[in-house]
Write a structure and sequence with these properties.
The protein is an alpha/beta fold. It has 2 domains: about 5-125 and about 480-545, Roll (Urease, subunit C, domain 1); about 245-465, no CATH class. It is about 35% helix and about 15% strand. The protein has helices spanning about 140-150, 160-170, 200-210, 225-235, 250-255, 270-275, 280-285, 300-305, 305-315, 320-330, 335-350, 355-365, 370, 380-395, 400-420, 445-455, 460-465, 470-475, 485-490, 525-535; strands at about 50-55, 60-65, 70-80, 85-95, 100-105, 115, 120-125, 125-130, 150-155, 180-185, 215-220, 240, 260, 350-355, 500, 515-520. A hairpin with a 6-residue loop joins strand 3 and strand 4. Helix 7 runs antiparallel to helix 10, helix 10 packs across helix 15 and helix 12 (about 355-365) packs antiparallel against helix 15. It is globular and about 75 Å long.
Length: about 550
């Protein structure tokens, strides 16, 4: 069942990602959790009584018994508008039966329902991670809880399967009760294993559409296979998006209806389109075409999964000299004028960008101390952390000029992202967490927002990439921006009713300093408690292991 997410992000502005020394708590208005009552055993007292958390004067959270009511008012908050960044102070946010029902001027005399005084706090929409891979094999409880702890209330699952689609249809996805919402999901990513020829690609697209995939995700295919899959997806009315095939003309792919391009390519995809030697670069990229079988191998994705996971950790660690040479030529022949022309093409075609700059950075500058010495590694299973370091050692063995080329290409990607934003290209925040080396779920989305700030996006633009833009991408509705009906602006459905509570006014500066959320509307707990629970996943090894691509 498709949901309307757009309406929830207009009356509330998403904050840039959180960083504050005051601990966040998680609040969420998603049914079936009752308003402001913690449903987890960790948030019950020794007698099993439900506990309600609220921040004290020090910004910490204490727990006290509170009767469960059918309606709750969050009193005296400041509501932030993602459309223009404006603040509306002294507001009462009313909730009932797990959803936000209205926003009105605070009325301390209104005793019709239980109220929680949150004067001085800020309410913003929950963050959307629009490129993530938290679902897969094994227990993903730790991953999902870490994401929720960092204010992520919805994510676009970028790698799926017929099994996951079936589980979603049946309401049996392997997710704990306290999880971000899956806002979209595809079937299996198109690769030579399931789309090695035009015929098999078309068959796979039809199969995934019939299974209820929200979109078709392109991974590694030839240009001819891509265009055939795109034509079939367009015919069926299902969006197609993902990676640009090696050697493809991005302008043609955009013109034919590619809804979003991930990772700015990846590789040389968009760089080649911004080069004064575009034709020569595309010819060089097409000199070594992908070899694929003309038929599908049953369960091939499972057979090759260990090899794929190792490669996906950091594809650049295995780049050949020819690919590096092409990348260097693309960097040296970059044209800002061509980049702006490309941006205007994307705007005209309605092609979105999900740069995943943090993914590009962890791959292309994999030896950076801030990645290898990140204190957030305490949330990562030791075996997964070992894989990351092994990948880092492979990167270290690359020639110095190769690593310099990767660094230069990342800096150019920051510049291109800024150009795209200036020209009006719609940009989404996505981390590519779970599968990529050095990316801790939840934290990595905030690193992505840092990267946007470093690229030069304005604070409001940064906020919009993880809130308003995601809502628009998912489902632009007639109620979007309806100030006369605030219940529309806050959302009526599961993820649409989720929001984040901030201790201080949300802001992003060019140094990346931000405020961390202290909660998500509906239940509230201290960050230390959240992290303790997140780290107690029954299968810690599953925390990071995934199929990021």
């Amino acid at each position: 069942m498709r949901r309307n997410y757009a309406a929830s992000y207009t009356g509330l502005a998403g904050a840039s990602a959180p960083r504050s020394n005051r601990g966040p708590c998680t609040i969420d208005c998603a049914p079936p959790v009752q308003d402001w009552v913690a449903s987890e055993p960790a948030l019950r007292d020794e007698k099993g009584t439900d506990m309600t958390g609220r921040p004290n004067d020090n910004g910490r959270v204490s727990y006290a018994r509170k009767a469960v009511g059918t309606a709750t008012v969050l009193r005296g908050v400041t509501v932030v508008d993602t459309r223009d960044g404006s603040l509306t102070t002294n507001q009462d946010v009313s909730t009932a039966n797990g959803r936000i029902t209205g926003i009105t001027t605070a009325d301390p005399q209104d005793n019709a329902c239980q109220a929680i005084d949150l004067s001085g706090k800020y309410v913003v929409p929950g963050y959307l991670d629009m490129h993530a891979h938290p679902l897969g094999d094994g227990d993903r409880t730790g991953t999902l809880r870490l994401m929720l702890t960092r204010g992520i209330t919805g994510f676009r699952q970028m790698s799926g399967s017929l099994k996951l689609l079936k589980q979603r249809q049946n309401g049996t996805l392997p997710m704990p009760a306290e999880s971000p919402d899956v806002v979209q999901m595809p079937g299996a990513v198109l690769t030579p294993l399931n789309a090695g020829s035009v015929k098999t690609a078309v068959t796979t697209v039809r199969e995934q559409h019939a299974a209820g995939a929200d979109f078709i995700k392109v991974g590694l295919v030839t240009p001819s296979v891509f265009f055939a899959a795109q034509h079939e997806a367009n015919r069926l009315g299902v969006p197609i998006l993902g990676h640009l095939p090696v050697g493809i003309d991005v302008i043609e792919a955009s013109a034919r209806g590619m809804k979003s391009i991930e990772h700015l390519g990846p590789g040389v995809g968009i760089l080649a389109a911004c080069s004064t030697e575009k034709t020569a670069l595309l010819a060089a990229l097409n000199a070594k075409p992908i070899k694929a079988l003309p038929f599908r191998i049953p369960f091939a994705d499972q057979l090759f999964l260990p090899m794929l996971r190792k490669m996906i950790l950091n594809p650049y660690a295995a780049q050949g000299h020819q690919a590096v040479d092409v990348m260097r030529r693309a960097i040296d022949t970059f044209s800002e004028e061509l980049a702006r022309e490309l941006a205007r093409r994307f705007v005209a075609d309605g092609t979105w960008q999900v740069p995943t700059l943090i993914r590009e950075c962890t791959c292309k500058i994999s030896d950076a101390p801030e990645f290898r010495d990140d204190p957030n590694h305490r949330f990562v299973d030791p075996s997964t952390l070992k894989q990351w370091h092994d990948s880092g050692h492979r990167f270290d063995s690359l020639p110095t000029d190769t690593r310099d080329t990767f660094r230069d290409s990342y800096e150019l990607e920051l510049k291109i992202t800024k150009i795209f934003d200036e020209e009006g290209v719609k940009i989404l925040a996505g981390s590519d967490c779970s599968g990529a080396a050095w990316e801790v779920p939840g934290h990595s989305l905030h690193q992505e927002l840092d990267a946007f700030a470093k690229a030069g996006l304005s604070p409001l633009r940064v906020l919009q990439t993880t809130t308003l833009n995601g809502a628009e991408f998912l489902d632009t509705s007639a109620t979007m921006g309806d100030r006369k009906h605030p219940e529309h602006a806050c959302g009526r459905r599961r993820n649409a009713g989720r929001a984040v509570l901030l201790q201080q006014r949300p802001r992003v500066d060019r140094t990346g300093r931000r405020h961390r959320p202290i909660g998500q509307l509906g239940r509230i707990q201290h960050e230390d408690e959240q992290r303790r629970r997140a780290s107690k996943s029954s299968t810690p090894a599953a925390l990071i292991a995934g199929r990021g691509d």
